[in-house]
Amino acid sequence: MADRSPPHCHLRLEWVYGYRGHQCRNNLYYTAAKEIVYFVAGVGVVYSPREHRQKFYLGHQDDIISLALHPERVLVATGQVGKEPYICVWDSYTVQTISVMKDVHTHGIACLAFDLDGQRLVSVGLDSKNTICVWDWRKGKMLSMAPGHTDRIFDISWDLYQPNKLVSCGVKHIKFWSLCGNSLTPKRGVFGKTGDLQTILCLACARDEVTYSGALNGDIYVWKGINLVRTVQGAHAAGIFSMNACEEGFATGGRDGCVRLWDLTFKPITVIDLRETDQGYKGLSVRSVCWRGDHILVGTQDSEIFEIVVHERNKPFLIMQGHCEGELWALAVHPTKPLAMTGSDDRSVRIWSLIDHALIARCNMEEPIRCAAVSTDGIHLALGMKDGSFTVLRVRDMTEVVHIKDRKEAIHELKYSPDGNFLAVGSNDSSVDIYGVIQRYKKVGECAGSTSFITHMDWSLDSKYLQTNDGSGKRLFYRMPGGKEVANKEELKGIQWASWTSISGLEVNGIWPKYSDINDINSVDANFMGQVLVTADDYGIVKLFRYPCLRKGAKFKKYLGHSAHVTNVRWSHDYQWVISIGGADHSVFQWKFVPERKLTDSLHIAPQESLVDSNSEESDSDQSDVPELDSEIEQETQLTYRRQVYKEDLPQLKEQCKEKRKTAASKRRERAPINSIRLHFVHGYRGYDCRSNLFYTQTGEIVYHVAAIGVVYNRQQNTQRFYLGHDDDILCLAIHPLKDYVATGQVGRDSSIHIWDTETIKPLSVLKGYHQYGVCAVDFSADGKRLASVGIDDNHTIVLWDWRKGEKLSAVRGSKDKIFVVKINPFTPDKLITAGIKHIKFWRRAGGGLIGKKGYVGPMGKIDTMMCAVYGWTEEMSFSGTSTGDVCIWRDLFLIKTVKAHDGPVFSMHALEKGFVTGGKDGVVALWDDTFERCLKTYAIKRAALAPGSKGLLLEDNPSIRAISLGHGHILVGTKNGEILEVDKSGPITLLVQGHMEGEVWGLATHPHLPICATVSDDKTLRIWDLSPSHCMLAVRKLKKGGRCCSFSPDGKALAVGLNDGSFLMVNADTLEDLVSFHHRKDVVSEIRFSPGAGKYLAVASYDSFVDIYNVMSSKRVGICKGASSYITHMDWDIRGKLLQVNTGAKEQLFFEAPRGKKQTIPSSEAEKISWTSWTSVLGSCCEGIWPIIGEVTDVTASCLTSDGTVLATGDDFGFVKLFRYPAKGKYGKFKRYVAHSTHVTNVRWTHDDSLLVSAGGGDTSLMLWTHEMEGHRESRQCDSEESDLDSEEDGGYDSDVTRENEFVYTIKALSTNIRPMFGIKPHLQQKEPSIDERPPVSRALPQPEKLQTNNVGKKKRPIEDLMLELVFGYRGRDCRNNVHYLNDGADIIYHTASVGILYNVATGSQSFYQEHTDDILCLTINQHPKFINLVATGQETQQICQLLHLVFMCGMQ
After folding, report:
1. Residue 163: what pLDDT?
2. Which of 153, 417, 987, 1348 could connect to 422 by a Cys-Cys bridge, CB 3.0–4.6 Å?
3. What value does the mean pLDDT take over residues 323-351?
4. Is the pLDDT confidence value at 541 over 80?
5. pLDDT: which is higher, 1047 or 505
6. Residue 293: its pLDDT value, please?
7. Shortest CA distance to 438 belongs to which of 456, 459, 416?
8. Which residues pair with residue 1410 across a beta bridge?
9. Are 480 and 417 in contact (CB under 8 A)?
């Protein structure tokens, strides 16, 4: 079997040739250490000219297009392109990430700039609105955001002399921004008569509100405030791309190839024309300049970087070169020297020295070059061209040997034979031509077997065979030199290949990911000696595989850096380096090959880290070669917690049923019942799919969760208190370090985390908005201020919160695989661990992002699935429990050793002051010393050890342990079976709480005269519960199958249980021993009932749509009720025991006579008169009102009537328990409703004396007891009850004015339909209709259409004088309240109308105005605080969700 592990060697990026000059500006600077920082492809480069050395920042995953240097010149900010682009701030010394800013921009980040003190960063997006954002970059927090302009913005800068002012410029505009509060407000620059309106490419700010900017025509425009005051004409001959300010003055660089230096008042100092220097050439265009002291850095369009020393300005020094714009495909390596040859669509061929990291020769050809090859003696270099010709040059002096054109389409591959006699040339005409080298490249053969373009070729070692690949994925073989195709497979068996660059074939099967296109991988090259293979693909990734690589989905190491497709990759002649070239980024990467890495070298983690794990050992088929997952974990990974309908959808669903509501609202409906219920006790604990969710509180109570409830259990009094803030399954629970607050996370479409107080049971904070589907893990930091949470979305998003403020600090995609646990480092709250399926990751916070590294297990190790993790006694020590029973001990991210702790998975661990405690699937609790060297003590959870005070019975010995916690001299243990146990240090075990195990609970019956009830569940157990204050399980019995129903006989001595295989049994109600059993049906028995009185008959209903009637005494079937068209759901006897009422899944209500089972048709008016022994039906006119408006979406699953016949309790699929008055006639009755169950409530039953209501939850496995509070009992706590599905409207509570105002919709005007278009270009000038999401926001502040402005400038008309607002008649009273106030002790009155705030002076009758709003003001308030006298806030309507709030100083309305 082939080894599928990744190779143990790896690659380290050593050099990158190139600089991104095209489409970017201002991206080249000196750092404080006099190093040069720039970027190319997806890599930030720090180059030291003194040492001729490069360092790389690899935190991006796509092309970097913008760069800014911090004022202290050590930190660098870079922005990338992409669907979800982000900004990284990194250190140029260490090349480590300091902060990440994300989640705001789309498409890409065009410009970046730091402010004067370096605290804030501004960024401009590439989206349709060119959004501008201001960040507090250390926190990764956005401070302000505004749409920048409708057209591209090219440069942005902070005004370094005025705080909170920015300037941006771009296509035909310049804008001056002021940042006030969190709002950015622009003012457009006024060009006036001084200069033409044109595109501004770059800018720099100076003192006294002066701004200098470079224009497209080569002029410098000088602005004072927002007005253009003068122009410096002809500063450059063409567009000025870059402007850089320093202490001495300003440097500008333009398309004319000149660099000009200016003094501080913009008087010219000197000009340097790079085209005229030694290294210059025609067409040189400057994209970036940086002036520091006597050195000037210049970056050009064609990927060169020059350094100029001012006093020798005619001798610029060329420090970096690369290919110019155009795809780069051709790559060849010299057979004996450390040289690489590349050729590109820029028509140049270049030779690079891999030792000196420099360009040593270049030659320009007539045509774009697509491939290259060097002859075996290293004398000739052959180049294949895009036009179908090929040229051979002498390597020595780059002179032409021959130029041959035999083909019309591009030559994509050529190779010399190992003996040096032949050159094979493959073209897009799908043929390979063979040329004789010695015969001056005369054509000697042709291979014509392919049907598609030729992509790769390899010669055999003896030069007798050639293998080819073509675009259709075919691999063909030819005899050389004639070119005859080899059909016989036998002939091919012994061939040894001189090289392997073929992408198809048995040897490289494993390089293909599943579901990939044949053209995804562009190039491979095998290193036969090192038995490794390097590949280049369309996703910008260079991968390292073992060679040969036989099995599909092999594992690999991957390296990022190229941004788009990597077109070619080759080993150097001595296998020291790998050279890879990028197509669109036209850069050349040189990677150092590091053979078998040893742990002793600190090499094994390169100094960079990247956001995408570069060292990924993962492959597409991680699952197949790992030991089988433990069955419990397997089950758990398959749970998705997705719901068809979430509780959040209720309002929408009700909205959809509007018509029904209207008809219903007109009818008079029954009031809700006066009685109410209160949650009293819950049997159950969520252990089957949750871990570490059980803790002691400060006061010694126990906190845990089940269904949608947080439970605080007092073990002395055996009472529970409940946190009922959640409305769906809680999946995780963490306790604050002070043990007084708890965080719980739930399932939901937009799932929430609640932090609540265990004493007062009140919520302190609710966090929403970042997790989809649910939250599966939470953890508090050691100082209690932060909270980490993990979602169950596909990326398992990790979020770090400041929970008191409800603010998200950082977020990141955690892992594709399920995460089971998150832990914050107790020593530094900026670090955390997550662990889960086949991974453990160590994260550190960087601004708004988190940067993760995988745990490193050494070259031979495999990472297990991790179930739990804790931090140890120092910052870098951590411990994790695996699915195989080991505890892994980590220092930083390195695995130091593993200790065998349990048989089967370690599900929970807990760190103590000295030592640890672990619990596993083997049902053993183990105490360890603080290094995990000695196991001090173990406790096995066994029935024999149960102490006499236990509240129930252990179902089995050694249950799987899911949670463990210490405190108050005890160990608290939660099991998979839903039990909570307290283990005394001396050994005895007390059972405190228990519930059903995993599986739905449906069967529920209450005893006819004792406070006990019976339940039966899919977990194959039948249980008897004590409902009196002792609240415990009295008896349990395992069944051979799960069950769905049960019923006590009228005397309470027998208990009938229906099972899922169609059988049922009767057992003794005390001992649970069998009395009798029957098996007549194949499908689930869904309901079972004794007839009243003596209990003579037993009716058994099944999903086969029949009801069987048995005579209990003779144990014989005496009747069958036929006629139901669907499965039976509910069944009740009448008082005489002669009539059965049956409900079916098709919503039929049927009647049958006992004992024979004859069907009866009874009209509903008659049926109402019948007295029933019990009422558990959900159909019929008496309970029409219990069906909700959205009855199509959800079912009422159960009902039960009190014995006095007044209150009907129901359970439904939404997890609501509701109380209705009985009879609930008429549709949509009013009710009280209670949330505690998470998904469907499967059954409800009142006890014999109506004092308790018992409800069973389906998937949440819990059994809940509710106290019935009769009339006259004051409700001690408000439930969200009185509402019915129709809210208050039918009570006629609205006055006509209120109704009118209630129906105001502010969005109609101009927002959804443009009655008054307030933006954009006149329709006849529009190029295209902006799509909905591109539409600029409605705003009056946007400028006039540009056409008009140009005309104005051209005709030199007198500008229209400004209008001044003098008086406004009117006041907005029709739909606003509390919006008139006195100010200044009654001297002034403040109010609003339209979009104006008005200050009216009572004495003079004059008005002054606040006019910054752009739409109707809807509300106004004044600040009462003496410190903020005269401060007013007004809010307007706008299309953006965020309403604008303006704070205004009223002293003169500025």
Report:
1. 86
2. 417
3. 91
4. yes
5. 1047
6. 87
7. 416
8. 1397
9. yes
Name the residue with tokens 């015969």.
439
1083's CB contacts (< 8 A; 6+ apart) are: 1062, 1102, 1103, 1104, 1127
% of residues, the chain, pLDDT over 90: 33
- Alpha-helical runs (H) found in 1119-1243: 1164-1167
- Indicate the pTM of the whole model: 0.79
CA distance 1398 to 1182: 62
**Is the sign of the CA dihedral 813, 816, 818, 823 positive or negative?**
negative
The set of long-range contacts for 218-224, using a CB threshold of 8 Å and a minimum separation of 24, is 218/254, 218/255, 218/256, 219/195, 220/252, 220/266, 221/174, 221/195, 222/266, 223/174, 223/176, 223/189
* Residue 589 pLDDT class (50, 70, 90 cuts): very high
Q: Looking up tokens 């040859």, which residue turns up?
A: 341
Residue 1226: is its pLDDT beyond 50? yes
Q: CB–CB of 446/485 below 8 Å? A: no
Residue 1347 DSSP class: H
Q: What is the mean pLDDT of residues 454-470?
A: 91
Whether residue 286 contacts residue 274, with contact meaning beta carbons closer than 8 Å, is answered with yes
Collect all residues with Cβ–Cβ distance below 8 Å to 1076 and sequence separation of at least 6. Answer: 1065, 1066, 1115
Comparing C-alpha atoms, which of 1172, 1237, 1180, 1175 is closest to residue 1211?
1237
In 901-988, beta strands by DSSP E: 906-912, 915-920, 924-928, 935-940, 961-967, 970-975, 979-984
- Other beta carbons within 10 angstroms of residue 93's beta carbon come to 14
Q: Indicate the length of the chain as a whole number.
A: 1454
Tokens of 227: 């007005």
Does residue 1103 contact residue 1086 with C-beta atoms inside 8 Å?
yes
Report the alpha-carbon angle 739-742-746, nearest 5: 160
38 in Cβ contact with 28 (< 8 Å): yes
Spatial distance between the Cα atoms of 284 and 551, rounded to a whole number of angstroms: 51
Tokens 């020291």 identify what position?
Answer: 576
Give DSSP secondary structure letters for 362-418.
EEE-SS-EEEEEE-TTS-EEEEEETTSEEEEEETTT--EEEEEE--SSPEEEEEE-T
Contact assessment for residue 149 and residue 170, using Cβ atoms and an 8 Å cutoff: yes
Q: Is the pLDDT of residue 850 over 80?
A: yes
